[in-house]
Amino acid sequence: MSDYDYSYSDDESIPDEIDISFVCKNQRNTLQKDESSSSENEEEIKKRKKDSKRLAKEAANRIDTESEDDIEPWSEPQAPDTNDATADPEEEYKLWVEREVSRLRAEITVGANITLDQARTRQQKLMSDAELAQLKAEKNPKKKEHMQFMQKYFHKGAFTIAEDNPRAQELLQRNYNTPVGEDLYDKKSLPAEMVVRGDDYQKKGRTKWTHLLNEDTTTLEMRNEARKLKKKEDTSIPDVHKKKKGNQ
């Protein structure tokens, strides 16, 4: 038998494991309070259970003693009135007829519009490009407005306006291409430096370029001039090698 082998008899029992936890000195008094409070909570829970059982028994006995006539039937509080029928059945029938007639009229109108659109589509497929352009011009005739020189363009906007408003009608029918303000003056007679919009004349940030048509953006003439100058320089310089060969 080795030193590490142990034998236990029947009389000896293996001790249970003990859960050891460290408690600070300042907190040792609180453990006793927690144990006392836990015991008080258990007593309160037991008392509540007893009270709840007693109340349940009293309620059951009260229901048994009461008769069915004494019990009030349940009714929904403030129930909305769902009865939309009128007192006069003839008036109600007239309203129903009006609703049905308007519904059938709308269905017939929608069906007729669909049939008409399909017929127009089939007809336009058989047309040529010239006929389609003529048809489009007849539907949307646009009069091209002539604007003055350097006139500022104003867009009327793409905002939704109520058509029943008289102010809206005036805004929709207004011609925004008519000149106003400084556009009323003819700027063609001014010098080229002064032909600018608004008060941009002699400002630091204004560019001096007005339009590409007024400026020479090609370099072909400059190349031709450079070639001419080079030829002149070549002809003006005497060829020394040719003279030496001739003397020899």
UniProtKB/TrEMBL annotation:
Q: Which residues form the Micro-fibrillar-associated protein 1 C-terminal domain?
A: 21-217
Annotated region Disordered: where? 1-90, 220-248
Q: Which residues form a coiled coil?
A: none
Q: Residue ranges under compositional bias (Basic and acidic residues)?
A: 53-65, 222-235
Q: What is the top-level taxon of the source organism?
A: Eukaryota
Q: Biased-composition ranges for Acidic residues?
A: 8-19
Pfam family, any one: MFAP1
Name this protein carries in UniProt: Micro-fibrillar-associated protein 1 C-terminal domain-containing protein
Q: Which InterPro entries match?
A: MFAP1, MFAP1_C
